[in-house]
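Annex B. Sample input.
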Amino acid sequence: MSAAPNGQVGRIPPGGLRQLGPINWVLAKLAAIATRVPVMHLFATLGQRQVLFWAWSIYGGRLLRGRLPRVDTELVILRVAHLRTCEYELQHHRRMARKNGLQAELQATIFAWPDVPAGTEQTLSARQHALLQATDEFVNDRTITATTWQRLASHLDRRQLIEFCLLASHYDGLAATITALDIPLDRPR
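Annex B, continued. Sample output.
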């Protein structure tokens, strides 16, 4: 294990130019600038697996800009990150979610769901309830019940249903990877 620049310990140190190669090094630097952090540890770690990192980046980027509305995408990502206790994903996507209409109060409801405080359950639409229930089942049970699927299908078309499954599984796998590699937070608390 090695200490990251912010003092956190990770299993694989963030790579520099030599480990990342010139393209991934530039991508990691640009990502750090875009997120206003000294090092974007996710890119500086995963980028060490050079060509695989490119494929992962393209796939993940496409999921972020898919057929699901961005507000739905961020809701699913936040819920997966919460269920997997992945603070790294939560740090990045809380801000992204706010930019896409999921303000702090609604995010708190997403994290507390299904045990939301009385009076706040109305802040979630039927569509959001369906997305949350499907995400919970997908992550916890590795499947979605027929009842939940029907409820979700009343809000999403066929392509969006496929995308929902790919999105939830991608961020579940990413949370597991971040946790297994013990990737340090970009903004330590």
